[in-house]
Design goal:
Organism: Babesia bovis
Largest sheet: 10 strands, mixed
CATH architecture of the largest domain: 3-Layer(aba) Sandwich
Subcellular location: Cytoplasm, Cytoskeleton, Microtubule organizing center
Number of domains: 2
CATH topology of the largest domain: Rossmann fold
Domain Tubulin/FtsZ 2-layer sandwich: 251-388
Distance between the termini: 43 Å
Domain Tubulin/FtsZ GTPase: 48-248
Order of helices and strands: EHEEEHEHHEHEHEHHHHEHEHEEH
Protein name: Tubulin gamma chain
Radius of gyration: 20 Å
CATH class of the largest domain: Alpha Beta
Helix content: 25-40%
Strand content: 15-25%
Length: 388
């Protein structure tokens, strides 16, 4: 039986990347904007129930809750073409609609004040799950709601659901004076980092500076938009959950993924790399996608979605999620070549092995490439992102 995961979208950034994530999941599972299956009704090799549940009329509803202190983004979602997808009872908006004003303390205090309303939604969603495995939190660590309310939710979830896993997709901001338009971003980030360290089981770092660099350098986008950045993030999120939804022989639940990557509980911040990179309007320059080619590119520094320099750091663990019709012997040969060329350097006190999880491509989405891949890795250079 598949184990369910509840997604929490918190703040402007969390809801923006959240809707892109659900668009991607709907496409990959043959679900339309109203939650109805439009693909092959007899295809049963995917696990829709991990992230969706069925209503009485059998249309699919995301296991998602939407929290924000100002209404603009959530209202945009609930009046979009996907308005019939979400459960409207799973939406919380502050009554005054004033937002958190980029103030961590205001976001945290407001969440504390309305905690009963927030957890009425979360508890109802959890009670509707047969075998809840955990929660996924989408948020920014720099905005008032994403950081403040996100921090409060992390603490409270840890207390109320101590046996459930918590994974976050945390957007890290530009923290330089040249690019930051909010003076208090560093304070919001520091306060949130403490909660991510103490209360999350896994933190997938989405570095805004690196995402913009990849869009400009790899996809030749002159001026990256928020929409394009969020689409890139949704590709990473969908790929990182691919083995949960299209299960292979291993790493087919959240616990298995975390066990593969986290050797020391406190060292649970993960970096990502994805290839081939594509957007709707911008094709990737990669022409050939063999398993070796994809795996080699995943470890190239310029493809890693982290702006801190990696040359002085080492890998603690690495997991390649390879999607497509792949012969396992190709995986073995590719790993051997990577070891021979010493493309990856591991720390000495942990087993130096690159783990691989296989997943099928979705039959509902036309594929531009035969093979695609995602790297999830625990790397010592992640400290550089926090030290900026």
């Amino acid at each position: 039986m598949p184990k369910e995961i509840i997604t929490l979208q918190v703040g402007q950034c969390g809801n923006q990347i959240g809707i892109e994530f659900w668009k991607q999941l709907c496409a990959e599972h043959g679900i339309d904007q109203e939650g109805h299956v439009i693909g092959n009704q007899n295809y049963h090799h995917d696990r829709k129930d991990v992230f969706f549940y069925q209503a009485d009329d059998e249309h699919y509803i995301p296991r998602a809750v939407l929290f924000d202190l100002e209404p603009r983004v959530v209202h945009g979602i609930m009046t979009s073409e996907y308005q019939g997808l979400y459960n409207p009872e799973n939406v919380f908006l502050s009554k005054d609609g004033g937002g958190a004003g980029n103030n961590w303390a205001r976001g945290y205090a407001t969440a504390d004040r309305v905690q009963d309303e927030l957890f009425d939604i979360i508890d109802r969603e959890a009670d509707g799950s047969d075998s809840l495995e955990g929660f996924v939190l989408c948020h920014s660590i720099s905005g008032g709601t994403g950081s403040g309310m996100g921090s409060y939710l992390l603490e409270s979830l840890n207390e109320k659901y101590p046996k459930r896993l918590i994974q976050t997709y945390s957007v890290f901001p530009h923290l330089t004076t040249e690019t930051s338009d909010v003076v208090v971003q560093p304070y919001n980030s520091i306060l949130t980092l403490k909660r991510l360290t103490l209360n999350a089981d896994s933190v997938v770092v989405l570095d805004n500076a690196a995402l913009n660099r990849i869009l400009v350098e790899k996809l030749k986008v002159t001026t990256p938009s928020i929409q394009e950045t969020n689409t890139l993030v949704s590709n990473v999120m969908a790929a990182s959950t691919a083995t949960l939804r299209y299960p292979g022989p291993n790493n087919n639940d959240l616990l298995g993924l975390m066990a593969s990557l986290i050797a020391v509980p406190r060292c649970h911040s993960l970096i990502t790399s994805y290839t081939p990179l594509t957007l709707q309007k911008h094709a990737s320059s990669i022409q050939k996608t063999t398993v070796l080619d994809v795996m080699r590119r995943l470890f190239q520094t310029q493809n890693v979605m982290m702006s801190a320099p990696m040359k002085d750091g080492k890998y603690m663990s690495a997991l390649n999620v390879i999607m497509g019709d792949v012969d396992p012997t190709e995986i073995h040969k590719s790993l051997q070549r990577i070891r021979e060329r010493k493309l990856v350097e591991f720390i000495k006190w942990n087993p130096a092995s690159i783990q691989v999880a296989l997943s099928k491509h979705s039959p509902y989405v036309p594929q531009q490439h035969k093979v695609s891949g995602l790297l999830l890795a625990n790397h010592t250079s992640i400290a550089g992102v926090s030290s900026r």
